[in-house]
Amino acid sequence: MSTEGLVPPELLELPVVLRHLHVVRVVDITPHMRRVTLGGEQLGAFRAEGFDLTPFVTHNPDDFVKLFFPDPETDVLTLPEQDDGHLDWPRRPAPTHRSYTIRRYDEAAGELDLDFVLHGDGIAGEWARTVQPGEKIHVAGPRTSTVPPKRAAWWILAGDETALPAIAHYLDAPPADTPVFAFAVVPDAADEQAEVEGITWLTRRDGVSDGKQLADAIGELSLPEGEGWMWIAGEAGTVRELRAVAKALGVDKSMLDASGYWRQPVTGGVLKRVRTLRAQATETLAGRI
Ligand SMILES: Cc1cc2nc3c(=O)[nH]c(=O)nc-3n(C[C@H](O)[C@H](O)[C@H](O)COP(=O)(O)OP(=O)(O)OC[C@H]3O[C@@H](n4cnc5c(N)ncnc54)[C@H](O)[C@@H]3O)c2cc1C
Prior knowledge:
Elements: E1 10-13, E2 18-30, E3 33-39, E4 46-48, E5 51-53, E6 64-69, E7 81-82, E8 87-88, E9 96-106, E10 111-117, H1 123-130, E11 136-140, E12 144-147, E13 155-159, H2 164-172, E14 180-186, E15 199-203, H3 210-219, E16 229-235, H4 236-248, E17 256-262, H5 270-286
Parallel strand pairs: 13-14, 13-16, 14-15, 16-17
Antiparallel strand pairs: 1-12, 2-3, 2-11, 3-10, 4-5, 6-9, 6-11, 7-8, 9-10
Helix pairs in contact: 3-4
Flavin-adenine dinucleotide binds near residues 99 and 100.
């Protein structure tokens, strides 16, 4: 396969700033998705720790930030330290943080939207479920930004509800010259977001994995000739299943963006558990900013 003039995705590195923001608004978009809008003076340039820090910027739809929470056991908030363009991370205790996609940033209004899946468990999910306007939170990033490919023959965007903020953001301004095929698995039909155009909604089904549902839907596509781009994100197992789809479609490594956004807990033997913890630790280190 070849596509004339194809420019593969490119990863940009950005200076990292730790900001203290406040909650402006909290809105339920669907039964399982809550939008938290953040604002504050530190979205602009400011000075801290002896450094002149740059205003908040975001360039591409799957840019994400890290949010910091008190340790669930000690209730102590540990933060990384601002350094010149990057953060220094303490090892013990390590900061408790979670990653969230920037759904929208309105520089003029000074508003940053993050969409939280209300999955019923977990520090960030619980924070989003109970947070009120005025409450404060530390936010860092984005550290990197992926520029999507140019002149690809097609794009496939696929994932579960955690991938939805990024997929919806891509669909806000799809490329003019490339057909985009977008799929998201959501818990219920009521979780389909009317504001998102150009997406195929799949409702989660008992006994069928998200990966299988997405793979079946992708399998029904008649893709245009030429080299395409696949962006996939969601639960780690779902992403694994979709990697196999990418392979079957002959998607080149440089044209595959696959990210495990969260991990279903493993039930089973001790060895399996140890492997999972090791994989999570590796992922945590890789995800530091
Ligand atoms: C780059 C990136 C961008 C992301 N963007 C978003 C985003 O925009 N919106 C969003 O909602 N999530 C997003 N995620 C996923 C989110 O960071 C994880 O779901 C995170 O684990 C949630 O943290 P928590 O504290 O609520 O749960 P944790 O404390 O991490 O986990 C507690 C338990 O909940 C389970 N769990 C975690 N997430 C889910 C889920 N979504 N559904 C069901 N069970 C779950 C875990 O397996 C664990 O058993 C993103 C992740 C990455 C890496």
